[in-house]
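Hi R.,

Here are the chain sequences for the assembly we discussed:
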Amino acid sequence: MPYELRVSLRYLTSSRLQTCLILAGVAVGILAFTFMAALINGLEVSLTEDVIGNIAHVTLEPPDRVPHVLPDPGDPFRPLAAVQRGSEPRPEIPDWRRLERQIEATPGVRTVAPQVTGNGFLHRGERLLPVAFTGAPRGKLSAIVDLEGHLVRGALPGSPEDLLIGVGVAEELGVTTGQRLLLESERGRRRSLTVRGIFDVGGMINDQAVFVDLATAQSLMELEGSVSKIGLKVDDIYDAPRLARRLAGATGLDAESWIEQNERLQEALTAQGNTGALIKLFSLLTIVIGIASVLLLSAVRRQAEIGILRSFGVSRRSVSVVFVLQGLLLGTVGSVLGAGAGWLFCRLLLELTRGPGGDPALPVDPSRGEYGMAILLATLAGALAAILPARRAATVDPVEVIQH
Amino acid sequence: MSGAAPDPAPRRHDDGPAVPAVLVARGIVKTFHDGEVDTEVLRGVDLEVRSGELVALMGPSGSGKSTLLSILGTLLRPTAGSVEITGREVTDLDERDLTRFRNRHLGFVFQLHHLLPDFTALENVLFPAWASRAWDAEDARERARELLDRVGLSPRRDYKARQLSGGQKQRVAVARALMMDPDVVLADEPTGNLDSETSEEVLDLLREMSEEQHTALLISTHDEGVARRCDRLLQMADGRLS
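And here is the predicted structure of the full complex:
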């Protein structure tokens, strides 16, 4: 063991109360750091899952037809021909089966759901309810929204005559499974359908969305043989923008990721992350100030010893190393204790604040407390804090302290 | 050179050849500056100490004894003059080389013993060897144990320095000063804080060990009894040797 380490350890262990107090200070700082990390990261996961749980990570649609003009070569301000947007046929994807296979084969894609979407009304006698309907091939209805996992009654549609509604719609219209409803699309087409199942995924989907078989939606939207868009879920949600760009290039369709569709969420998450980073920075600053003050005190208190060490050949560098090592030891040991306490605190908070539904009061994620980073930063903070005391100790004049 | 002590006749051991001077100081001047006030503490000091020689340095407080010892011990640089130890001019060495030189060639014993209170007697003696990084760990421990045995403190070697009496601490300080088998040991009032009996013991110890290891010993003291037991006496007054 290098003697500088031996001296550092002895200095720390010989002032037990002081060392315990500063270790407790570092540990509390790191507890705050890891708790903030677990909270901010947990909140990010919770908010993101809430937002993306029921939407496609990437949505592929036919490109927007922008109006374009063919100008006269002799007079650029005189159009020879103009193509207006409204004159184009409704956007549709006729070769969706080929594209579905192509997209499914793309690495990083988890599930693909060709869809026909539209707006319409549900009729029950004289009662009318505006709804958004989605049709997908059988077996793909749960690819985007986990309807199967949230069924509260009945089953998923098994035929073109079946309808799946949310608990809000069922309550509003006063229907249950087995009853018939009339769905009228924005194109004016009507189909009489049987309520096959009722789901509860939470939020507005329960009140506004209904699901049907793909053939039914195609018929309602006059899109026989085509789909209006292709939704997909990906393995890594933060890789969605890159995957969207890649698929747009490969398919010729417009592709948009959930991140682009939810810019406000990203802004909120960024602001939240910045706030968390600031709080973590203050925790680290507290650690630096705490360790620096203790070591400065030690450097002053041990001046005579430092002088005598210098007299028999201990270099200024070694004296500095003794103090930097003390800073490193305090930072490391204190932060390991603090990280452990932080993990325990998050676990306890989760368990003790769990409501009747099993959800905790705070969306803390103990597995995302950034413990390694906290220990690393606190160790560096300890070394940083020791610089001033180390410089002070290294400049002790042995003659002065020995003679006095 | 004013105030210089007359060079002693070369000392011979057992009628053998002349013993060379291991410590040579020439024209040492030290002036301290405090604002606009200059205080000349040493005013041209010449001295030589030979290997194995025991030299007493006496003088009233403020005569410059401690400053001279600090300069000879390379802890302080002179304003003018030169210091040679084992034939090497040390006043122009840089800080790093000076620290290394001090570790290998010089030993110190101070009035207040200046042990490290949180370390054991054995560890205090080991420190110069640790600082040199030149010793095998077990060899160093063996040497430190021998020295503590030699000063009669084997039973106390694992005691913390703060648990030792004043005399025991000074014995540990003597052992530490001799750990690196130095050419010169500088002792500043080594018996100043001890009762007469313990003073005698410490002085006997210094003398015996100096003879055994042929170490030159320069002792600053107010005690005429100590001075009488040395080979030679140097008197200091007003920054000069007489």
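The two ends of chain B are 11 Å apart (CA to CA). The helical segments of chain B are 65-72, 95-105, 121-132, 137-150, 166-178, 196-213, 224-228.

Let me know if anything looks off.

Best,
T.
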